[in-house]
Amino acid sequence: MIRGVIVMNDRGKPRLVKFYEFQPAEKQQELIRSIYRVLCSRAENVSNFVKVDSLFGQDVRLVYKTFATLYFVFIFDSSENELAMLDLMQVFVEALDKVFSNVCELDVVFNFNKVHTILDEFILGGQVLETNSSEVVKTVEEISKMERAANSIKVVPSIPGWQGR
Amino acid sequence: MALSGMRGLSVFISDIRNCQNKEQERLRVDKELGNIRTRFKNEKGLTHYEKKKYVWKMLYIYMLGYDVDFGHMEAVSLISAPKYPEKQVGYIVTSSLVNENHDFLRLAINAVRNDIIGRNETFQCLALTLVGNIGGREFAESLAPDVQKLLISSSCRPLVRKKAALCLLRLYRKNPDVVNVDGWSDRMAQLLDERDLGVLTSSMSLLVSLVSNNHEAYWSCLPKCVKILERLARNQDVPQEYTYYGIPSPWLQVKTMRALQYFPTIEDPNTRRSLFEVLQRILMGTDVVKNVNKNNASHAVLFEALALVMHLDAEKEMMSQCVALLGKFIAVREPNIRYLGLENMTRMLMVTDVQDIIKRHQAQIITSLKDPDISIRRRALDLLYSMCDVSNAKDIVEELLQYLTTADFAMREELSLKAAILAEKFAPDLSWYVDVILQLIEKAGDFVSDDIWFRVVQFVTNNEDLQPYAALKAREYLDKPAIHETMVKASAYILGEYGHLLVRRPGCSPKEIFSIIHEKLPTVSISTIPILLSTYAKILMHTQPPNPELQSQIWAIFGKYESCIDAEIQQRAVEYHALSRKGAALADILAEMPKFPERQSALIKKAEDSEADTAEQSAIKLRAQQQTSDALVVTDQRTANGTPPVNQLGLVKVPNTSNEWNTENQEVTRANGALPVVDPQPPSTPSADLLGDLLGPLAIEGPPPTAPQSESIPVSGLEGGSTADALALAPIEEQTNTVQPIGNIAERFHALCLKDSGVLYEDPHIQIGIKAEWQASRGRLVIFLGNKNTAPLISVQALILAPSHLKMELSLVPETIPPRAQVQCPLDVVNLQPSRDVAVLDFSYKFGTHVVNVKLRLPAVLNKFLQPISVSAEEFFPQWRSLSGPPLKLQEVVRGIRPMPLVELANLFNSLQLMVCPGLDPNTNNLVAGTTFYSESTQAMLCLIRIETDPADRTQLRMTIASGDPTLTFELKEFIKEQLVNIPVPTRAPAPMPSQAQPISPPTAISDPGAMLAGLLTRWALNNRMRGLAGVKGEFYVINLSLELECLEKF
Q1: pLDDT tens readout for residues B631-680
Q2: In this predicted structure, what is the pLDDT of residue B825?
Q3: Integer Cα distance of B10 and B141 in angstroms
Q4: Which of B5, B96, B170 sits opposite A151 (nearest CB)?
Q5: Chain B residues whose beta carbon lies within 8 Å of the beta carbon of residue A161
Q6: Distance between CA B302 and CA B290 in Å, rounded?
Q7: Residue A100 contacts B, CB cutoff 8 Å
Q8: Are B653 and B1038 in contact (CB under 8 A)?
Q9: Number of neighbours of residue B927 by Cβ within 10 angstroms
Q10: pTM of the model as a whole
């Protein structure tokens, strides 16, 4: 199972944080800081694996990859294949690249909600959902279309929500 | 690129980006949170659009690390918004912000369900995603049928179905009952015929989860998995988009091979052959190419294939082929592949017969120790450590020593520990071992833990042949400039004991040895000075005839330290000073240290324990979560850092000065500043005996108890304290009891825990018997109340104090029991969940004017809900492996257990319904047992147990317990532990009982002490008592006389 996905920049600022097992805000930040400390000390041209026993316990692994100014990090347990996780990360980035045409950090910052949507098409409940980036891009475009459509029609907000019941 | 239609959000993000520092950022965030809070309060004017904007802001703020403790309801309420964008943000933000047990979430179940069963595909997807990410038990119960329907529906688009598959997986994990095994296994097999690779990938993940719990039910999926692999390997019918760098869906290949690893074996020869063909093709057809991504993908498949080959226990030829491949990998340029190559070689070592082939790659592995990547260096170290044996120990350890000087600081401690362990385990000769340890201290003194030098001292002490050599070595190191303090400690100790063996060598006269050691004194810390003082005293003793010059020199030093502010140093100085004036008597008192008892190496134990500790810690956490009220349970666990350092050399013969258990005698002498009285016959010292008794069974490696626990008299504060605890818990009303029970209540209870009928309680008036029948998670106990008198027993009352995990219904108990009559009261028991809490029968009656009240533990204990099961190797190992770690698999080193031969241990296990399965563990000192536990929450659940005993020390063992339920694993572990550890039961002298009317002292006499505790806080009290005993962990070996080490301070 994938425990979490973190995207942060090279100064340790989180850009996307998604844990598949609930973590309180404080704990999340602590993990992000510790991971950043490890990652920023790693040289180039080394492996993509880092030992994180002390942070997550014995069975948990971490792969990361740098793309321009961003670190992409997947945390997962021994039921996943390390290299397959790395592949998935690559496909995720390819999808971002297609959606934002040449993705850069700013795209991720200002469209963090869209990035969430894209991630949800790749991973669900800590499991690999889809591995075909074109399929994901197609789905995300459908969603964007719907958003635009919804915004253009003015619906009177009179339908009672869940709260009204 | 601006955010679609949400200017406010973009502006906020820009503001945050423009903040110069954290303080500004916090101010901006606080302002925004205040704003959102106000807007949410006056909700009336808020449009869905605005709500959406604020909720996205909340998520952004949350991601930045600020706690967002409001607005969750607004996020959840957006789920039922009519329009997609609002609904979407409701779903996404809820699944990031809200914990699965949040109350608001429960309220949203209906809205979510409406989206799932509705016709809008996009809404279905959103709902499935939320449930798949954070759905809890309640979601599982109310939504599973709908989700299953979507998954197998032929009218649904793959987009929805693949999400339904993973959503179902989540629900299954939350509550396995939602997937009906009988009905679902065929469906699962049909799902594997799916053409769409997206749906197939998700379904395969679902299968992995199902199979890992119950492979029996899914045998029919096995050939289908092999078919899927064949289809992918041959690249048949794989759409281009699912081909990644020319490899047909590596993810699906990997998942499918993972699923196959959960089946214990493949029996059908045709399926097996097809699978091996595919595997062979993967093994042979993968090359390292230039493109990194392609390499990653192709090797993901390859490494999974290797794992599957290892699992299937292929023929030796194929195994050698795998090792050859790995050997190639560890030398390639690609760091990821080097990393995984080393890791998989380590795994491969578990497979028999390949060690020798792996050894051929030793040179390359050693080279990997110098890899630029620390991750790889760590893997190489792990592998070298695992592959080391007598044949290559010398090479490997010397490499590690050499590497030590250049290794990263982060690795040095691990490195030196591992080198020390290997040197000890596989030393071809002892002098080599001494060389290695001294080199270790020289090269990495800061990273050499005390355990390491304690151990070398033990070795030297126990091996006479080694002593001159060690002394010589120690002397040589002292000549080097700027030696590490640990080296000063070790060499001073060794030279103090054995320096006199060098006397004829140049530079080794007592005086020379003294001066070279004393040169170091100004450079060492307070903790080392006591060792040096001991050494001086020993040197003095060994200098025969006495050298007046040396004597006055050393006396001057003692004199100087007699006023030292450090109590330990001061005391030693005073004592040595006084002792060394005693002349010949000195030789007796300061005689050479006796041999240390043979024991498991503390180092090796430490390495083993580090594994156990993590298991324990998580068990502690688990426990703490489950039962917050029972806070003391946590402290009952051994401290996380395991064995206290004092154990290593704590076996020195010193009357402890700083210990709380000091007998009064010593307290007094210390107060007076006078010397303790020297007793030349140590074992007969009364205090030593007492301590031996007290600490024996629980002290970790103490001498075997010379007398049973119960005989110890509560003299020390320790035992007195625990007795007080027990007494304090005695209910006040016990004083009404004036009737003495016949037989030992606790013993009767323990007997009934192992059999199903017998007497639970008896006194002159009544006999209470029990007969029980157990069936899975249910049981029926019949309580027999027999009046032994010729007069009726009146006001009979029976109350069941049931723990929360047991549902107990006692049928009506008559108020009067006629003379010489017996009544039967059936008691129905349902076990709801694993727990080792005990039910208590609070029973009272009146005989004449006496009210008798007893609280009796009922034998409805955990092992009653166990059914022994014999597991074969084929069943055991895959299960064992699949339950890979805490909290499902817990390990603990249990000490202070009642020593018993292995056969007896096996019998005990069998009588607890834990069926010992002989032959599973190749090591005959180990036991493997299987059982099925039944409760309403877990249903039938297989539990596996492995016990590793130490033939040299029967008071300790290591146990590993695994089951599919974390609570069960923990409870079962604790339960077994309770059965093994000798809990001292305060047996009291049976008071002569002339008449019933006489008040009895102590008042607790009638009640089973265990039952009282059970009624209140069973475990609390028992643990407390154990904790009290275990609290003094030291090893008090022989009290002879003052000498030695600084371990004392550590108490």
Answers
A1: 222 223 333 333 333 333 332 333 333 333 333 333 333 333 333 333 33
A2: 86
A3: 40
A4: B5
A5: 48, 77-78, 80-81
A6: 17
A7: yes
A8: yes
A9: 23
A10: 0.61
